[in-house]
Fold this sequence. Notes:
By secondary structure, this protein is α/β, with parallel strands linked by helices. The protein has a single domain, classed as CATH 3.40.630.20. Helices cover 36% and strands 17% of the residues. The strands form three sheets. A four-stranded mixed β-sheet has the order 3-8-4-7, with helices on both faces.
Amino acid sequence: LAGFGPFGEHAVNASWIAVQELEKLGLRDDVDLHVYEVPVEYQTVQRLIPALWKKHSPQLVVHVGVSGMATTVTLEKCGHNVGYKGLDNCRFCPGSQCCVEGGPECIDSIIDMDTVCKRVSALGLDVAVTISKDAGRYLCDFTYYTSLYQSRGRSAFVHVPPLGKPYSAEQLGRALQAIIEEMLD
Length: 185
């Protein structure tokens, strides 16, 4: 499970706070949970994501990012390979503007996000969950595509809104817990 560090106007990144909340809450006993804070840096992502897949050989990797436009917890269906023009925290942008040279334009998660969304919504949590097909062509989408490519689709990405807009850290942590347990099912 990975959240992101600070960037831009997000001096405190809600994704990392939500991941830490989930770590406190935990997942069911048969889940071996590893938590990482990922710097908002393209080159670090290109090294770190393959290294984590190699180190842990996980069944699933879930990335969590903040979206200043989000008002719901959003399940991303796919990652995109091209269109990366925004500078990261190191003022760097890939010259090719893509994740994997020669990779497919889009990779879908093997997780049925529509079903996960329906089932989590039916739990009656005080958090709205929605679906998206565009994670935004910045570090979130870049990380998601990199992980999907590495795992042949065994990754997921969840966008959360900034803290307090409208959800608390605890609400986001509980929502992530329900979403990830549903994904594992």
